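W.,

You were right to be curious about this one. When I first looked at the sequence I had no strong expectations either way, so I just let the prediction run and decided to look at it fresh. Below is the sequence, 369 residues in total, followed by the output.
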Amino acid sequence: MKPNQAQDLGLKSLLAAALMAGGITFGCSTNASQSLQAGGPPAMPVKVLEAQEVAINDAGEYVAMVKSRDSTVIMPQVEGQITQISVHSGDRVESGSPLIEIDPLKQQATVRSQESARTAQKANLTWAKQQYDRTRGLFAAGVVSKQDMDQAKSTLDAAQAQMDSLDAQVHEQQVQLHYYKVVAPRSGIVGDIPVRVGDRVTTSTQLTTLDQPGSLEAYVFVPVERSTQLKMNLPVEVLNSDGKVLANSRVSFISPQVDNSTQTVLVKARISNSNDVLRHAQFVRARVIFGTHQNPEVPILSVTRLSGQYFAFVAEPEKGGYVARQKPIKVGQTVENNLEVLEGVKPGDKVIVSGTQFLQDGMAVMPMG
């Protein structure tokens, strides 16, 4: 065989081998693709939670104000200029402790004047008694007439009446003098003192407040639409701005009238406030629990909203596996990190709580607890 013929034979052999190898590879790739299409895409692993029916409170949250049941507003009973303030805001005082003094000089002068008048009248009364006794003796001896006797008796009675009147006036002025020294009507903690020494006060001026911590009352303003559901002893929860429960109570008073300006009904609930976290005149939120009902709950993260409609994916069994079904749902209250479901999800449904942004209706899924 010639060299050129040998080389041509070798090239033909290598080309045939390459074609055979390529054909084999192409055939294997085609079989793998056909096998993948026949089996479908692999199921997507998802985390699911079984919807369970739980007791949910039928409640409403409303604005409320905390008021002290043992808070006393101190106001003077007389007019005058403040000469002394004996306490500071925050001081704890006992009943009868001096708080504020109002200038008593004018009242003291009035008392002295009344006492002097009483002293003078006492002398007149003594003289009238002597005259009456003398006239009575003379009348018994027949020296004076019955008319003189009656006149002496009338003079004595008038002097006694005048004396009684002056006694009452002196007592009144002495009592009035005590009001110039304002004392604590009960034990407690002194509040803000808006007045200063030298200020002139009247009977309508607030001097300070006196509080006894611990006993408070929540004034809850419930819309009139829910007034028919109000009952005594309904549970009431006092909340802070973060929704944390600060105190638990029950309805102790329901107003029989509706506030004309706000169209609300006043409801009161007593608060023990043993941990001292609430203050008088503090605004809070109050949750009134009207009753309970049973409904399933789903995590908030498992719910999506499209065009105002809420949806949740549920893993449903189908052909030996599970597929994701998008369910339109109607939600109710928010309870911590869950949503109450009124319609669309039943107890026992496997609600998908992970990877919902990648799911499509009918997609194969693999539920995982």
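Here's what jumped out at me. Residues 1-38 have pLDDT under 50 and may be disordered. And, maybe more interesting for your project: Helices lie at 3-39, 105-140, 146-178.

Coffee later to discuss?

I.
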